[in-house]
Amino acid sequence: MPLHFTSERHLDDGVVEREFTLGEIPGILWTPASMSTSAPVPLILLGHPTLGLHKMYPRLVARARHAAADGFASATIELPGCGDRPRIPALEQARADLRLVLEAGEPVTDEIIDALTLPLVDKAVPEWREALDAFLELPEIGGPVGYSGGVISIGVRLAATDPRIVAAGLFAGSFVPRATYEEARRVTIPLHVLLQWDDERNDRQAALNLFDAFASKEKCLNANMGGHTGVPPHAGDAASNFFTRHLK
What we know:
alpha/beta, Rossmann fold, nine-stranded mixed sheet, 7 helices, globular
């Protein structure tokens, strides 16, 4: 499926931001000012939560600028059932069930987690792989490829199934289905996992269990005190150093 660019603008630091569509999937590609077709650059896929690209844009563009300063292109796509994309009834029902459980102060069951996450992963991962096909056809993108952030179960499956991704930075802040632990045992690439120790949206023990399940010989857990939105600036620097080691 061809990538169709719909807009282009130059940010104040020289980063080129291009919005695109891949079929019905919208997305954004950022490339550094130093990029040229004669010197293609590595690529970082920017994952994000299910809030939609419009709401996530300020955080995504900040991450993209950081990546560009390190000499990387970066790209993201809208997740299925999010933003302006058509809603998925099963996911909408699972999100409603989750809200009811949280409002009642009850534990989130494995059944709710599976219903909330697995249909999203099943739809999103093939779309990410199709987008990666298109990105790597661009003369300014040469690889290698990293994956950063977003719904951790999406990152785990991509890391386990797509050999083009050579390193991944994962955010421990999502509900983890049982199947994801099994997939983690197939992940062997270098990993950098960010964990907010007091994250009110994250089951800390589940995050630690998932980290333990990864089969990677090189895996780092960057754990910081604080809640979901309290990620310290130096955590971003650590992730940047991780991708610089493995993508250059």
